[in-house]
Amino acid sequence: MAKTVVILGGGTGGTMVANHIARSMKDEIKRGEVSIVQVTNNPDHVYQPSFLFVAINHARVVDYTRKQKTLLSQGVELLVDPATKIDPKSNTVTTASGKTLSYDILVIATGAYPDFNSVPGLAEAADNFYTAEGAEKLRDKLMSFEGGKIVFTVDVPHKCPVAPMELTFMLDDFFRKKGIRDKVDILYTYPIGRLHTLEPCANWAAPKFEERGIRSEVFFNVESVDPQKKIITTVEGSEVPFDILISIPAHKGAPVIQESGLGDEGGFIPTDRYTLKAEGYDNIYVLGDATNLPISKAGSTAHYEADVVSENIISELRGLPVSHYYDGKVFCFVEAGLNEATYITFNYNNPPKPVPSSEMIHWFKLAFNEMYWLSARGIL
Ligand SMILES: Cc1cc2nc3c(=O)[nH]c(=O)nc-3n(C[C@H](O)[C@H](O)[C@H](O)COP(=O)(O)OP(=O)(O)OC[C@H]3O[C@@H](n4cnc5c(N)ncnc54)[C@H](O)[C@@H]3O)c2cc1C
User: Fold this and answer.
1) Which residues contact 210 (CB under 8 A, 6 or more apart)?
2) CATH number of 114-249: 3.40.50.150, 3.50.50.60, 3.20.20.140, 3.40.50.2300?
3) Exposure of 44 by Cβ count < 10 A (0-12 exposed, 13-18 middle, 19+ buried)?
4) Fold for the domain defined by 3-111+254-329
5) Is the pTM for the entire model greater than 0.85?
6) From the CA of 109, how far away is ligand 1's center (Å)?
7) Is the minimum distance from the CB of 256 to ligand 1 under 6 angstroms?
8) How high is the mean pLDDT in each 10-residue block of the chain (380 residues)?
9) Residue nearest to atom 44 of ligand 1 (CA)
C-alpha cells in the first residue's frame, strides 16, 4: 500500500515541498509506493511580494498569478477543497466537501493572514497592500493622491517584516518624482522603541528616514481607529489624523489550525526550530508562515525550510534516518526607493547586516520576482 504524504496549502512552502518530493521520488510514485496529495483552498497561486509593486502601479496582480495545477510536478495530486479539520489521533484531514484523507506524513503550510478585526475601526478605515484586493484599492488611492497625510501602522507578527519600510521608501520616491513630495506628509510608525524588530534594519533605515524627511514615531500601538473622523488613537495616548492609513495588522494562522486545536493563541503551530516537526507529533511537519518560530515570516524562510522538510520526508519514506536541520536562514531584498535596494541574510545565530543600497540589488529583486515560478516548481 502506498505511503501517503498530505500537504496542506498551495502557497510557497507547500508547493516547493510537493515538487521537491515528487521530483526525487518519481520512481516510487510510478510504482505506487508513494502518493503525494496537495490540498489547497485556492485554484490560483498568487506571488504575494508583487503586491508591493501593485500598490505603486508597477505591476498587476494578474501577471503574478498562475493556476496552481500548472506549477505542480507530475505525481502530485491536487485537491482544491479547503481543509476544515486535522485530526492527528486518527492521522486524517477533513475537507469542506466532506472528504476524509488519511496520511502517513502531514505537511502543514497554510500560511498566515492579516487580521483587520484585531483593532476596532481598522477594517473600515485602513488600506493595505497585504492582499491582492487591498493592493489594487490602495494603488487607485495613491495614484490620485494630490497631497495630505499618509500614516503607516504596523503590528506583529506579520509576514515580510521589511515590507512596510519598503513601501515607505518607495512612496517617498514616487511623490518626489511626481513633484508633490512637499505636499505629502509620510508618517511611519512602529510598535516597539525603534523602526524595526531587527535592530540592524532599524539602524540602517533611521538615517535614510531623516535624510528624506520621512517622519517616524516609535512605541506606536493602535488602540482604535475612527473611520469617519480619520483619527488613530494609540495605546500610548496620542491621537493622530490621517488621509490614507496603510495598516499591517498582527497576523494570525489559518483558522483550520485553531479549529483543530494545533495552534497557540495566534493560531501558529508550536514547531521544533531545527527539525520543523510540530511539537509532540512525529509525523507532522510545519513550514512557512504557519510556524511559531522566532524568525521572519518570509517566502525565503519557507523556501529554505522546504528543502529541510522535503529531504527528511524522502529519508523517512525510504526508511532512512532524517539528517537535515533548519538553521533559521532567511534572505530578503529590501527596496530603499523606486530604483535602489539592499539585502539582508541572517539565521538563528547571526543577525542581518544590510549592505549599502544600490540600483543593481534593486534589479536583482525584480529579476527574482520573475524567477519565483522556477523556485516554486523546484527548478531553481
Ligand atoms: C506585500 C508582501 C510582500 C512580501 N515580500 C516578500 C519578499 O520580498 N520576500 C520574501 O521572502 N517574502 C515576502 N513576502 C512573504 C511571503 O509571501 C510569505 O511569507 C510566503 O508566501 C509564505 O509561504 P507559506 O507557504 O507559508 O504561505 P502562503 O504562500 O501564504 O500559502 C498558504 C497557502 O495555504 C492555503 N490555505 C490556507 N488555509 C487553507 C485551508 N484551510 N485548506 C487548504 N489550504 C489552505 C492558502 O490558500 C495558500 O495557498 C511578502 C508578503 C507580502 C504580503
Assistant:
1) none
2) 3.50.50.60
3) middle
4) FAD/NAD(P)-binding domain (3.50.50)
5) yes
6) 9
7) yes
8) 96 98 98 98 98 98 98 98 98 98 98 97 98 98 98 97 98 98 98 97 98 98 98 98 98 98 97 98 98 97 98 98 98 97 97 97 97 93
9) 40
